[in-house]
Amino acid sequence: MPYEGExxxxxxxxxxxxxxxxxxxxGRSKTLDAKAVATSIVPLMAPDYNDDLPKFILAIxxxxxxxxxxxxxxxxxxxxxxxxxxxxxxxxxxILDQQRPADPVKFRETESASTIDAALPGxxxxxxxxxxxxxxxxxxxxxxxxxxxxDDEDKLPLIKTYEVLLARKPLGNxxxxxxxxxxxCDAKIIIGAGCVECPKCKSPIxxxxxxxxxxxxxxxxxxxxxxxxxxxxWERILLIHLLxxxxxxxLLGHMNKLAFFLDxxxxxxxxxxxxxxxxxxxxxxxxxxxxxxxxxxLIILGIEKSGDFVAHFxxxxxxESAGESRFPQRSYLLLTDSYIKxxxxxxxxxxxxxxxxxxxxxxxxKTKNGARLVATLPFLDDNQDTLDSExxxxxxxxxxxxxxxxRLACSRYPNALTPIVSAHAQAAIPxxxxxxxxxxLAQALMAE
Length: 448
Hints:
Blueprint: H1 11-17, H2 20-28, H3 34-39, E1 44-45, E2 56-68, E3 77-89, H4 90-97, H5 104-108, E4 111-121, H6 133-147, H7 158-166, E5 175-176, H8 180-183, E6 188-189, E7 195-197, E8 204-206, H9 224-248, E9 258-263, H10 274-294, E10 300-304, H11 308-316, E11 331-334, H12 337-343, E12 360-366, E13 372-378, H13 398-408, E14 409-410, E15 416-417, H14 418-427, H15 433-447
Parallel strand pairs: 2-9, 9-10
Antiparallel strand pairs: 1-11, 2-3, 3-4, 5-6, 7-8, 10-13, 11-12, 12-13, 14-15
């Protein structure tokens, strides 16, 4: 590890890259002819959609930051997590588009936002009722789930939606007591709702312990991964929470007026990955009500901004002729299990790609203005829950969703969508200014 302010030169990089061991390792590695892959792909044209678009778009995105605080202990940190839900009035946007240049004041009226903001203990931050930073993190996470209320009318906390999903968790894999590292307790526990005692050490066990995020918590050092997992879980549970609120109010029959966009794939990664199957099951249940009420499916899309799939789409769309591309405008490629395993993430696993983490399947789409988008369609019934079929009729809202992607493609950033840009703007914590303000705020609150 370098000293602070010490930077590596280029000679070690050159030495490593040119070493015989590196060359031998690369020589033993499997390669893929990217050009052959690209030329064998046959994108399909998206079906036309000639009906009304949803009136509203709800986009969900999150952000996190970790800052140093003074507690008297070295390396003390606090994590901030925020998740924003932005509601866009697509109908009003279309009216203003016809009156260009649009009045900026009226255009701002097309967007309204609400956020979930929270602070969580990081390394070496121990709350007064706890004996370690990890136990403090677990307690605060549980309390936050109890305190987050989205709808002021029915006062339903986020913990209720989470515990509905927790009830769908398989019971065959009990968890070791979270206090095993501090008191040696080796009890195996099936986590249920609420807060109970460990049957052996009598320490508090929280329903949110089933997420096992605390297993990625570091008592010393950064906890960016743990805070990122909290943000990921909140984004996805918020989607289910909103749908359950609409169900409670009898509004599922009006879901043709609303489309949901989530930042990132429709998946849950890491220790909370069991949530993916629970979310998928709940989406299928809710969608069955929606389908019986209005004769069509929910409109939900996950949008990826980076990663292997985004890089692959960019690569296969390129040709040797400048200005030409392989994907025509309004064309798509529905990704299958075999395509992903052979051309994107090489594996011989017999398990379906993403079966433990995804509650949807990916597709590539090039909009009418040329934006390349990697999106995920949710599994809304058992027939859709496949990566083998290329029959797009399995997904009855696909033509509408492609039309939405055309309509919402954003020119401010390459391959971007307006709802995701808006949600990120509400959730994003500026790297320098934001962390400075949060650090000062943390210090002030701790002083009080």
